[in-house]
Amino acid sequence: MNKPIGIFDSGIGGLTVAKAIAEALPNETIIYFGDTAHLPYGDKSKESITMYSKRITGFLLAKGCKAIVIACNTASAHAYADLKKFYPKVPIINVIDPTVEYCLGKYKKGKIGVIATRGTIKSRIYPRKLLKANSKLEVPQTATPLLAPMIEEGFFNNKISKTIINSYLSTKNFEKIDALILACTHYPLIKKEVIAFFKRPVEVIDSASVVADYTKKTLKDLGLLSKKKEGKDLFYISDYTESFEETSKLFFGDVIDLKEERIWD
Ligand code: DGL
Hints:
With about 260 residues, this protein is an alpha/beta fold. The chain folds into 2 domains: about 5-95 and about 210-260, Rossmann fold, CATH 3.40.50.1860; about 95-210, 3-Layer(aba) Sandwich (Rossmann fold), CATH 3.40.50.1860. The chain is built from 11 helices and 11 strands. The strands form 2 sheets. The protein has a 6-stranded parallel β-sheet with strand order 4-3-1-2-10-11, sandwiched between helices. About 45% of the residues are buried. D-glutamic acid (DGL) binds near residues 9, 42, 74 and 148.
């Protein structure tokens, strides 16, 4: 079905997922929404995030989207169940389930750490899902609330980001971990720095390609794959920021079609 896929996040983080989807599904058109007016989502209440997510999903559906990808862990943790109830006929994909599925397939025992926003960590959604399926795992987690705003501001691969990342990861929680889930879609932008922190092999897992594969499978199973890319990808933000424009170019090149859409006014 030649209709676009709607993807949203609080800001640039979901672009890591959008990019992976664009690579895995070259025939698909993307409409992206970055809710920069409400960034960061990490410390907002479940009620607020659910309200934002419903409004953004409504906007993307009005633009003709055939499926929605919640390219944000915090919104996936807080709003996925409500969104599915609110839009029962729309295929809605979250970033958490495909990542959990990947981990369960790969790790039968061992210690899988999680870093994420306060909202995702407080929801305990990763330890709950992983331990329910496999009680032999250990799932220590640490909130890293400075990271998403830092990345959104364009601070990565520099001295400041290195200091902050090292300070968060030095926690005793993560001693002897086998893997670390980057449970925030902003974090693939600091993946190299996280890998560099560990002086031994630790698998650093980001959800972008796992979610892209899952999206492909879901659309295929539902007979919703497009035959041919029609039209341009579109990018909306609820409040213009230079850093969004810069980072979106990093992922999608210089010619992206970026519009400010004040859907809250
Ligand atoms: N990228 C988001 C996530 O995966 C949200 C970051 C934020 O806005 O705090 O949780």
